[in-house]
Amino acid sequence: MIAVKPLKNVNCFAYLCLLLASALIACGDPDIEEQALPYYGQGAISDSSAFTVPKFSFINQDSLEISHRDYEGHIYVTDFFFTTCPSICPIMSSQMSRLQGLLDQKGLLGEVKLLSHTVDPEHDRPQVLKEYATRIGAQFEHWNFVTGTQEDLYDQARHGYFMTALVSDTAAGGFFHSDNFVLIDQKMHIRGYYDGTSTTDVDQLLLDIEKLINQQPNEK
Fold first, then answer.
1. CB of 195 within 8 A of CB of 33?
2. DSSP string across the chain
3. Is the entire prediction scored with pTM above 0.85?
4. Is 179 part of a structural domain of the chain?
């Protein structure tokens, strides 16, 4: 959905765009969301002044608390889904699983982590998440599936990652959520948005992860 465009410098203007995106997304209009999102990715990977993901705390598939502390110092990729989704979620989960496999082949799992949030916490309790994650081959030491209160999950989507998560009478399965994967760097900065249903975008995501890893020594 989002064509990742270059953004050479994330400055005050970009920060204001982030705030505007947050306000617009809170209105629940997915079309506004996609128009308002700042573009990170291919040309902006080297920038380190981006928006910082706020602190968070959720419960994972093993009923353990997972927070920002578990991801600080790591590159991670995050998304939103629900286990009974009849439309895009199976494709997204398949692509995330494929990304996991590619990272594993390159020996990058551990340095890179994955984080998937449910948008249907009433149904997607820890055991349900674990069964779903097991079916798609998740390696739990590197990939967490989290739940929590609907308020906290939706707030994290909108204000933490600038994505949509909401109950919808018109959406397939009863929920609308963004189909993007978000790339977060070692300092909890947002560095890219990628279409989680696109093999091409996910391949680019892998390339950008490798860029972040290769540039890390230069940023210390």
1. no
2. -------S---HHHHHHHHHHHHHHTTT-HHHHHHHPPP-STTTTT---SPBPPP-EEE-TTS-EEEGGGTTTSEEEEEEE-TT-SSSHHHHHHHHHHHHHHHHHTT-BTTEEEEEEES-TTT--HHHHHHHHHHTT--TTTEEEEB--HHHHHHIIIIISS--EEE-SSSGGGEEE--EEEEE-TTSBEEEEEETT-HHHHHHHHHHHHHHHHHHHHH-
3. no
4. yes
Confidence of residue 30 (pLDDT cuts 50, 70, 90): very low
Q: Tell which residue, 47, 38, 36, has the closest CA to residue 208.
A: 47
Confidence of residue 17 (pLDDT cuts 50, 70, 90): very low
Q: How many separate domains does the chain show?
A: 1
Range of the domain at 119: 12-219
